[in-house]
Amino acid sequence: MMNTKAAPKASKPKVNWMLTVILFLGTITVFFPLYMTLNIAIKQPTEMTNDVAGALAPPKEWSLSNFAEAMRVTDFWNSLGNSLLITVTTIILGVLIYSIVGYVFGRTMATNKKYKFAYFYVVSGMFVPFAILMMPLVKQTAQMHLGNQLGVILLYIVFYMPMNVMLYASYMKNIPIGLEEAAYIDGASTFKTFWKIIFPMMKPMHATVAIMTALGTWNDVMTPLVIMSGTGINTLPIAQLNFQTQFGTNYNLAFASYTMALIPILLFYVICQKQIIGGVANGAIK
Amino acid sequence: MNKKKKMTGRQKTFAAIMIPALLLFFCFNTYPMIRGFIYGFTNYRGYGDFDWVGLRNYADLFTDPRIWNSYFFTFKYAICGTILVNVLSLLMALALNAKIKAKSFLRGVYFVPNILGGLVIGYIFSFFFTYILPALGQMWHISWIENSILSSKEFAWIGILIVGVWQAVAMTTIIYISGLQTVPDDVYEASKIDGAGKWKEFWDITFPLIIPFVGTNLVLTTKNFLMVFDQILSLTNGGPAQSTESISFLIYQNGLDGGQFGFQSANAVIFFIVIVLLSVFQLTMTSKKEEQL
């Protein structure tokens, strides 16, 4: 391996085949759990013998009946609808709110002490773990009649605010103020200037924020679990938790349900893989 | 004159944006946090009446074996997890940044665990630990996995650790790859001329240059591992014999259902302080290292 890497300086370095092979073999660690899940999901309980082959050998007969049954048992479409509603609304409202708040901070922080203080107040919220907010929020949302999807959306918007406002505020350094001044001279309002000039220029940041918010909210368990408990409103992950007793030892049914819970996000990933990896890396480093 | 008027209009717009945003943030972040602090001084059970108990909850926290147990478990899990994740991710990043075929495909595949939810992944691995691993253990005569590790007081935490690491490596690797890409190629060329070996090249050149990324990753991984919840819920539900109760899990379990609303509020305050101290400590550590270089 060493030798192939220390190739002649002038020419292009050679492909490290050994490393390539090792990395391809390593993808088993990712594919194996997914294979196992899908495999069990399309098998019938009668094929589940008590040895390794029972779970891992390919099914003799493909059947989608487990999926149909799981959809019925877990009220799949409702859970999917709630997950989509919560995630999409949080992303749209989040991007609008974070970007305009980040814009104001970005333009005022350097010269105005009040805004600087407000900025640090919001950003310090990053240190607050959900665990300390959880119990009071359960009481508070119940009192405010927000023990529902709207409550969860509001909590997400507030919970992701510190991180995302910081991202937008620091991104404002890249956008010269001269662009806005030109618009003022033409008589545009501050809000209109933001919407027409600044907001479109923040596009790379929108992608990062939208993707991080999407992954965070789609997979979150704790918030909907405590806020909507007892209401019968499920998100996709919460449905998996709440229907554990119904699945019982029917693993085929359970795994069909898990498969359906994983498919939407996997599809999203396959379609926007580049943006997701780029967005996540972008957000984490800043 | 005209310009001045415009600027005050601008200030008004700024205030009109900022005030509702700050109110919203206060209402669902600062206010519940203050309430959490206050509940910590009461014996509130989550319903009914309550009395002020001063600092008694805090005193009781230090003598409660279940609390100690959860802190011990959570820190053991977070420390092992952070080390494992960062070592593995650094190796993965070096490999995925090397001259290999199908680079973007491989990077794409190794990122998949990060996008999947911890709860469902936990259920899937739970099946693996309960049925597949013991079967393999019997086949190969490895005694400690012949029974499900999740039902063993000694090994259950390792099952949770495996799932946590499997998911976390994906994200950490991506950050290390971005770090490696900031190292300019000519730095490596200079070291080749000097005849430095790969190992020496990594420690002398690459590693010091990516120290800021190591700092970011250590903070992120430790924090995420300290807040472990979803995997506990789906893998062990805190068991067996309360051996895998994380701090967050215990706050959830006993605070909301166990009648310890006040007591667990005090626990949450301590947990909050721990998280803040840790973040500050790690950030100053890494910035010091950067200065030295």
How would you sum up this structure, described in words?
The complex is a heterodimer of chains A (286) and B (293). Chain A is mainly alpha-helical and 286 residues long. Chain A has two domains: 62 residues, no CATH class; 210 residues, MetI-like (MetI-like fold). In chain A, helix 5 packs across helix 17, helix 6 packs across helix 15 and helix 11 packs antiparallel against helix 12. Chain B has 293 residues and is mostly helical. Chain B has one domain: MetI-like (MetI-like fold). Chain B is globular and about 75 Å long. The model of chain B has no long low-confidence stretch (mean pLDDT 88). At the A-B interface, helix 2, helix 3, helix 4, helix 6 and helix 7 of A face helix 1, helix 4, helix 5, helix 6 and helix 7 of B. Chain B: Pfam families: BPD_transp_1 (PF00528).
Supply the key terms:
heterodimer, A: 286 residues, mainly alpha, MetI-like fold, 2 domains, 18 helices, 74% helix, globular, B: 293 residues, membrane (chain B)
Task: Describe how the helices and strands are arranged.
The complex is a heterodimer of chains A (286) and B (293).
Chain A: H1 2-5, H2 17-26, H3 28-42, H4 52-56, H5 65-74, H6 76-108, H7 113-123, H8 130-143, H9 149-159, H10 161-171, H11 178-185, H12 190-201, H13 203-219, H14 222-227, H15 236-242, H16 244-247, H17 251-271, H18 273-285
Chain B: H1 2-39, H2 56-63, H3 65-97, H4 103-115, H5 118-140, H6 156-181, H7 185-194, H8 198-209, H9 211-226, H10 230-235, H11 247-257, H12 261-292
